[in-house]
Design brief:
427 residues, four-stranded antiparallel β-sheet, 6 helices, 22% helix, WD repeat, WD40_repeat_dom_sf, U4 snRNA binding
Length: 427
């Protein structure tokens, strides 16, 4: 209470979103040290005298005063929220209709579908390995049609490759620091890159720079497109994640809530929710239509580096420095599985994007692993890299997985060769 009272008298917010008691005390100590260094002793003394006077006076109902707990948003943010609500209502209705049809249709055999998908995943084998850059690779992303792959590296350069031959198509130069993530738009062949130079950039597939998103105060970590392709989310070491309008480049939302750097970001396939994770070992789920933090998922004991929503709309996977992958059930608001997945930290988690029949994890133990989403048992271990794997992506049909590593190589793991061999055997 004394810390809050002192902050109030110094004209500072009495608490920040997601701030704990020790962090609030540290903030006050740093503020007082700064005021002292700037020679503003009068302000400190006045706050102290006010506190003494308040203590000697009769007790008042000070804590009953209602302070605003939000910052008023812009008209553009309101329009974006309405647009996201309309989009998500349609998408969720289609998802639920599809789920009901699968449940009620006697011709639909979901178990057989899952078995087939897991058999495909179990037959994944190294199809191609290519040197991606002179410096270690940090991120990779497949286009929505699976015909292109984008990679980024410590050199600050991003590259586009044709699939499945993995031949270089174009080079994207524009960042002044290392590039930390790259992602393709889910609706077009635009792609976005994030960098330690505190900016994100939007490019077309020919390699032309279309737009730069500036505003973060520290280096960026990860980047993600909203399923509609109209909005872009970025996470940063300035403890915030931000939402941008792709068309105009305007910053729509600056969201605080993590007490340490924000690292991973994933949009729900309906477009209604977004999950963020950070170095505070917390996963937060936000409702984009209202701006509320609707879930704070605690369970990891070390920083969380990757999150991914399942296409079934009910599950969220997260992985981090405690070497575990947790599966969260959004309906029960708790962790339903804990996978002791790797012998080193997990750098990325991704559900198979079409049905979510399997989950892929990448790790610093130089392997990527595939897990069944039915019981989260191991299906396949992809080993071949000579250094830590920084990122992975799964093709829309689940036929292949790409991984990029600190050993500077792109590796393509495919099940199509196995299919071809089986057909030849039958012939």
């Amino acid at each position: 209470m004394a810390v809050r009272a002192r902050l109030r008298r110094l004209g500072e917010p009495i608490t920040l979103f997601g701030e704990r008691e020790m962090e609030r005390r540290d903030r006050l100590r740093m503020l007082m040290a700064r005021l002292d260094a700037e020679g503003q002793l009068e302000k400190l003394m006045k706050a102290h005298e006010d506190e003494e006077a308040a203590a000697s006076a009769a007790p008042t109902e000070e804590e009953d005063i209602q302070y605003p707990f939000y910052t008023e948003g812009s008209k553009a943010l309101l329009d974006a929220r309405v647009e996201i609500a309309r989009y998500s209502l349609l998408k969720s209705a289609l998802r639920l209709h599809r789920a009901r049809r699968k449940r009620d249709d006697p011709d639909e055999d979901v178990d057989a579908e899952v078995d087939w998908a897991l058999k495909q995943a179990g037959s994944l084998a190294l199809d191609c390995s290519e040197i991606g850059d002179d410096r270690p690779l940090f991120g990779c992303s497949l286009s929505h049609d699976g015909k292109m792959l984008a990679t980024c590296s410590l050199s600050g350069i991003a590259k586009i490759w044709s699939m499945p031959q993995v031949q270089k198509v174009s080079t994207l130069k524009g960042h002044t620091e290392r590039a930390t993530d790259v992602v393709f738009s889910p609706t077009s062949n635009y792609l976005a890159t994030a960098s330690a130079d505190k900016t994100a950039k939007l490019w077309n597939s020919e390699g032309s720079l279309l737009r730069t998103f500036e505003g973060h105060l520290d280096r960026l970590a990860r980047i993600a497109f909203h399923p509609s392709g109209k909005y872009l989310g970025t996470t940063s070491f300035d403890k915030t994640w931000r939402l941008w309008d792709v068309e105009s480049g305007e910053e729509l939302l600056l969201q605080e809530g993590h007490s340490r750097s924000v690292y991973g970001l994933s949009f729900h396939h309906d477009g209604s929710l977004v999950a963020s994770c950070g170095l505070d070992a917390l996963v937060r789920v936000w409702d984009l239509r209202t701006g509320r933090s609707i879930l704070a998922l605690e369970g990891h004991v070390k920083p969380v580096l990757g999150v991914s929503f399942s296409p079934n709309g009910c599950h969220l996977a997260s992985g981090g420095e405690d070497n575990t992958c947790r599966i969260w059930d959004l309906r029960q608001r708790r962790s339903s599985y804990t996978i002791l997945a790797h012998s080193n930290l997990i750098s990325q988690v991704k559900f198979e994007p079409q049905e979510g029949y399997f989950l892929a994890t990448a790790s610093y133990d130089m392997t990527a692993k595939v897990w069944s989403s039915r019981d989260f048992k191991p299906v396949k271990t992809l080993s071949g890299h000579e250094a830590k794997i920084m990122s992975l992506d799964v093709a829309g049909d689940g036929q292949f997985i790409t991984t990029v590593s600190y050993d500077r190589t792109i590796k393509l793991w495919s099940s199509k060769n196995i299919e071809r061999e089986e057909k030849m055997d039958i012939d």
